């Protein structure tokens, strides 16, 4: 799945990634966490990484110990517990701060007349399609520059302070720039499509949502195979014993003929992740090196069985279906509410209709706010799928409840992720059930047969 991120990346559940894929369609900010749609964050390029189903609420391992003896992190020391609490608190505050900042930046671009000015400049491009593209390029750069201090703080400084960052500042920054470039190159498709429909159809919101389906499918299919390798090296799993075990597991799950890859995710941030994906009959089982290095074979089997559960239960496609429903609803709300605002501020914005490309920042503000309000609903669906994948993982891997519980406990320790968040925070922001609940679930789980 498509993980996209806005300012400071964070892992997402499959289908939430899809919503993001769709937001990605709307254009700007492939990187960065300004929408605060997901729990937590890593680096801006998370956005482009496919991380399906994260097993965890936050998936970074700790790099505090560069020697690779992270095993010493487990079980958790009191100092580490204190850091976990402080990191969790910071993230909770940032969910709102980051959201407000992203809206603020867009609003600034709008009310200063910068958007209108960029539209005027973009007219040198001649044909409408290229005008829109040039505008998008300028807008994405302006948004990037204005957000940069906050992105550096959240995505690099904070992550470094908590010991997650495995990149130098320049590497981190370079990846952010690459993400920006990809946004501008790919973002033109949905943006142009959007403005074309707004001019052509009264029910543009409906046509857009339906039209986004093939685009989202292409992204889902392409990103794992063609985009992810731009950021990381994929190679056949080195541990052949583990490969054999995983292929046997896949076979039991009905996934035949898959290739098993490991990816050098530790280059960026030691986040733990894994996913299973398929393209034209070729299936890929992908493990982050951080998972391989820090978990036992039994634990990895449970993690991978969970991922296979997402795959065999077609969660990504269900996620897409749910995302499309929410997106059409969100766009409908935009269509219903945006015109009075444009009317009221037409002098200041220097445009008077939605079909004017200069309205893009305003459209993004509306979508951000609406999606933020939708989060409890979309996350509830996501948590349900995660529970299904956990059940599947227990059945298929056959590990003990205690092993499953250790996996979650380790994820909490390695990622400094709060196992027991406030219920409101979990309800609103968590795409996965809290680790404490998941631990209780696997401990009490009795296989069906
Ligand atoms: Zn999952």
Bound molecules: zinc ion
Radius of gyration: 22 Å
Number of domains: 1
Beta-strand percentage range: under 5%
Mean of the pLDDT scores? 83
- What class would the helix/strand composition place it in? mainly alpha
Treating each run of at least 4 consecutive H or I residues as one helix, how many helices? Answer: 15
Tally of extended strands? 4
Principal-axes shape call: globular
Cα end-to-end separation: 31 Å
Please list the strands of the largest sheet in the order they lie side by side. 1-2-4-3
Assembly category: single chain
Question: In this structure, how is the largest beta sheet organized?
Answer: 4 strands, mixed
Poorly predicted segments = 1-71
The helical percent reads 55-70%
């Amino acid at each position: 799945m498509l993980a996209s991120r806005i300012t400071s990346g964070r892992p997402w559940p499959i289908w939430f990634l899809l919503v993001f894929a769709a937001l990605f369609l709307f254009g700007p900010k492939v990187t960065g966490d300004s929408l605060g749609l997901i729990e937590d964050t890593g680096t801006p390029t998370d956005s482009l990484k496919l991380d399906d189903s994260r097993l965890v609420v936050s998936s970074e391992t700790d790099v505090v110990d560069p020697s690779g003896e992270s095993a010493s992190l487990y079980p958790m020391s009191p100092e580490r517990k204190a850091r976990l609490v402080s990191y969790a608190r910071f993230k909770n505050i940032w969910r709102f701060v980051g959201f407000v900042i992203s809206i603020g930046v867009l609003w600034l671009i709008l009310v200063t007349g910068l958007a209108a000015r960029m539209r005027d400049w973009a007219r040198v491009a001649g044909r409408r399609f290229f005008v829109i593209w040039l505008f998008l390029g300028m807008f994405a750069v302006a948004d990037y520059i204005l957000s940069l201090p906050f992105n550096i703080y959240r995505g690099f400084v904070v992550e470094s302070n908590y010991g997650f960052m495995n990149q130098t500042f320049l590497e981190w920054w370079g990846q952010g720039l690459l993400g920006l470039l990809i946004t501008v190159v790919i973002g033109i498709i949905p943006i142009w499509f959007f403005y074309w429909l707004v001019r052509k159809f009264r029910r543009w919101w409906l046509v857009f949502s339906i039209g986004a389906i093939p685009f989202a499918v292409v992204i889902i299919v392409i990103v794992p195979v063609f985009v992810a390798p731009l950021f990381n090296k994929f190679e056949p799993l080195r541990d052949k014993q583990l490969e054999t075990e995983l292929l046997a597991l896949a076979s039991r799950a009905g996934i035949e003929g898959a290739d098993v890859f490991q990816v050098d995710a530790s280059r960026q941030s030691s986040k733990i992740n894994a996913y299973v994906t398929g393209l034209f009959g070729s299936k890929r089982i992908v493990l982050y090196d951080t998972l391989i290095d820090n978990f036992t074979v039994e634990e990895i089997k449970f993690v991978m069985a969970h991922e296979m559960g997402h795959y065999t239960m077609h969660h990504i496609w269900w996620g897409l279906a749910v995302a499309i429903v929410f997106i059409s609803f969100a766009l409908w709300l935009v269509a219903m509410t945006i015109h009075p605002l444009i009317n009221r501020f037409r002098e200041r914005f220097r445009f008077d209709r939605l079909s004017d490309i200069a309205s893009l920042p305003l459209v993004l503000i509306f979508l951000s706010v609406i999606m933020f309000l939708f989060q409890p609903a979309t996350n509830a669906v996501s948590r349900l799928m995660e529970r299904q994948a956990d059940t599947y993982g227990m059945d298929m891997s056959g590990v003990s409840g205690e092993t499953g519980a250790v996996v979650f406990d380790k994820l909490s320790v390695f990622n400094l992720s709060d196992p027991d968040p406030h219920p409101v925070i979990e309800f609103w922001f968590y795409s996965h059930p809290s680790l404490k609940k998941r631990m209780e679930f696997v401990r009490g789980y009795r296989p069906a047969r």
